TrEMBL record:
One of its GO terms (molecular function) is DNA binding. The lineage of its organism: Bacteria, Pseudomonadati, Pseudomonadota, Alphaproteobacteria, Hyphomicrobiales. InterPro entries: RNA_pol_sigma-70-like, RNA_pol_sigma-70_dom, RNA_pol_sigma70_ECF_CS, RNA_pol_sigma70_r2, RNA_pol_sigma70_r4_t2, RNA_pol_sigma_r2, RNA_pol_sigma_r3/r4-like, WH-like_DNA-bd_sf. One of its GO terms (biological process) is DNA-templated transcription initiation. Keywords: DNA-binding, Sigma factor, Transcription, Transcription regulation. Residues 104-156 form the RNA polymerase sigma factor 70 region 4 type domain. This is RNA polymerase sigma factor. Belongs to the sigma-70 factor family. ECF subfamily. The keyword DNA-binding applies. PANTHER family: RNA POLYMERASE ECF-TYPE SIGMA FACTO, RNA POLYMERASE SIGMA FACTOR RFAY-RELATED.
Amino acid sequence: MQNADNSFKREMLSVLPSLRAFAMSLCGKHDRADDLVQDTVMKAWSKQDSFEAGTNMRAWLFTILRNEFYSQMRKSGREIQDSEGTFTESLSIQPAQHGQMDLQDFREALSKLPDNQREAIVLVGASGMSYEEAAVICDCKVGTIKSRVNRARAHLQELLSLEEDGNYHPDNSAASVVSQAFVS
């Protein structure tokens, strides 16, 4: 078996210069060609038991190299070069635990609202109903619903310690993560 391994190794090494030239013709860049030859040699070495002694080693290696090149080309069509991590950072999301804690805080604050305010804000804010539809459901005037929703929003802002600008956004720790994604 040792002689077979040495024979395989010698024959494969003798083809390397031609293999590299072929890889250069496909890739056009020395570093990519070297990587392609290395991948080819690794595949050939791991599959040497499928090589039939006495057949054309050169043709077998060239076939492996060509197939590897086309596989890499197909794969690169589905991948994005992101060595700096810029694209990856733009995909980052807030950790789920922050959202869970925010939702828990919101539910607690919502439960502290008077029943008529909670009902009005849930109908208009969460259910997406118009003020008119909510007024019909609550059997009151549209102005009353608007007032209840306004008072409920103000009370929620106070309970949740939200800024009064009406722009609801991530807290400071989450905002730093979000702003990092847009810096680049």
